[in-house]
């Protein structure tokens, strides 16, 4: 089972991103997420993390695949990726300072601009994720701190066999009342 989750909240042509104050990706804009706790499913984790880091309580997010990586030929890791589309008039004024960093709505054209050095690695997989297709595996190869390779492929049957999800009608955001 992978150890982390990442989630993207979309409102119209904007995504709520976090400029992280801590490693990894310190100083870069990225989705919201975190480490899966013991006895927690990936969907429970992302709902808890979204609630803790943004204050937004969701009942469900769409599973979009997994983001995996290999670093300098050795270290491997990955995270479950999720997406939620919020109503166009969803009230969430930003910027918001949190313990994790700064939350702000960023326009998709800004996020995906090829010269944007302040984005983690979203330009590689976010466009496919937003098309509504998938789920996919988005695999990165890093060498000396830089992307040396990237591949997108349909998530193989069984590749996510260790993902345990709650039935949709029993999902709650970290046990909180909405």
From TrEMBL:
Q: Which InterPro entries match?
A: NUDIX_hydrolase-like_dom_sf, NUDIX_hydrolase_CS, NUDIX_hydrolase_dom
For activity, the cofactor(s) needed are: Mg(2+)
Keywords (A to Z) from UniProt: Hydrolase, Magnesium, Metal-binding
Q: Could you cite one Gene Ontology molecular function of this protein? A: hydrolase activity, acting on acid anhydrides, in phosphorus-containing anhydrides
Q: The Nudix hydrolase domain covers which part of the protein? A: 1-131
Q: Which Pfam families match?
A: NUDIX
Q: Which residues form a coiled coil?
A: none
Cellular component aspect of the GO annotation: cytoplasm
Q: Which PANTHER family match?
A: 7,8-DIHYDRO-8-OXOGUANINE TRIPHOSPHATASE (PTHR43758), OXIDIZED PURINE NUCLEOSIDE TRIPHOSPHATE HYDROLASE (PTHR43758:SF2)
Q: Which family does it belong to?
A: Belongs to the Nudix hydrolase family.
Protein name per Swiss-Prot or TrEMBL: Nudix hydrolase domain-containing protein
């Amino acid at each position: 089972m992978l150890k982390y989750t990442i989630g993207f909240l979309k409102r119209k042509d904007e995504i709520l991103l976090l400029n992280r104050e801590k490693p990894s990706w310190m100083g870069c804009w990225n989705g919201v997420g975190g480490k899966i706790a013991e006895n927690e499913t990936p969907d429970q984790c992302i709902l808890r993390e979204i609630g803790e880091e943004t204050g937004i309580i969701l009942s469900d997010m769409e599973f979009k695949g997994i983001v995996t990586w290999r670093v300098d030929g050795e270290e491997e890791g990955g995270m479950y990726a999720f997406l939620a589309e919020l109503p166009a008039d969803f009230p969430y004024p930003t910027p918001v300072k949190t313990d994790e960093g700064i939350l702000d709505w960023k326009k998709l054209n800004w996020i995906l601009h090829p010269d944007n050095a302040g984005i983690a690695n979203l330009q590689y997989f976010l466009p496919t994720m937003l098309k509504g297709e998938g789920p996919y595996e988005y695999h990165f190869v890093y060498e000396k701190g830089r992307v040396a390779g990237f591949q997108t492929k349909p998530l193989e049957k069984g590749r996510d066999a260790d993902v345990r999800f709650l039935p949709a009608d029993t999902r709650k955001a970290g046990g909180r009342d909405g």
